[in-house]
Specification:
Number of domains: 2
Helix content: over 70%
CATH topology of the largest domain: Four Helix Bundle (Hemerythrin (Met), subunit A)
Largest sheet: 3 strands, antiparallel
Strand order of the largest sheet: 1-3-2
Number of strands: 3
Distance between the termini: 33 Å
Shape: elongated
């Protein structure tokens, strides 16, 4: 693999999940470019873990379309086709979000709303720190929370299969935006629509903000 990027050692708990998040983050941020080979032994050594969790993490990344593993040629990072993302993954995201948003006001309780508000507050901190990756990561966590708590396990699985592509797109959009301070405000506005079960404003918001 490239000498310019190395993985950090990980704590012992949830090794597969930690390996998965580390590799996925590196792919989404562009630290591991398309065509980059992923070597289980090298990643495991850099993280200070065995190959098993890394192998499981790569298997999940294969399923999500971020990597491709050939039985005899190893694993490579796949290129994220912008047209495919725009015409397939973005519309899929919008459909999922509209579905769960309509159910959210009936399923979420005060604790859920507090958790979502805390994510928005963290977005404000990330914006103040000009931390684009953290801001987009919190954006994804906000919407993932809604999908996980308001959708079925099947819908949540579908969401997880597209969200890495969406995260990469958000990063690109963030780079070209003149200002990121509107992101927390947009999410607070959206949360208010959910609280009041204003379906028309929810749909209008999603249509104008998911592209």
């Amino acid at each position: 693999m490239s000498e310019a990027f190395t993985f950090s050692k990980t704590p012992k708990q949830s090794l597969k999940n930690l390996a998965y998040e580390s590799i996925k983050t590196a792919i989404v941020k562009g630290d591991l470019p398309p065509g980059q080979r992923l070597l289980e032994t090298e990643i495991a050594s850099q993280m200070g873990i065995s190959r098993g969790p890394v192998r499981e993490a790569i298997r999940q990344l294969d399923q999500e379309g971020l990597t491709y593993s050939h039985p005899h040629r190893g694993t490579v990072v796949l290129e994220m086709d912008p047209e495919e993302t725009e015409k397939v993954f973005v519309p899929t995201r919008r459909i999922i979000e509209e579905y769960v948003a309509e159910k959210a006001s009936f399923k979420l309780d005060d604790e859920d709303y507090q958790n979502l508000e805390e994510l928005i507050q963290q977005m404000e901190w990330a914006d103040n720190e000009d931390n684009l990756y953290q801001l987009t990561d919190l954006d994804i966590k906000f919407h993932s929370y809604l999908v996980e708590h308001c959708g079925s396990p099947t819908i949540y699985a579908l969401w997880n299969s597209v969200i890495a592509r969406i995260h990469s797109r958000l990063l690109l959009q963030g780079i070209i935006k003149e200002s990121l301070h509107i992101v927390p405000d947009e999410h607070r506005e959206y949360l208010q629509y959910i609280k009041t079960h204003d379906i028309e404003k929810i749909k209008a918001h999603l249509q104008s903000h998911i592209y």
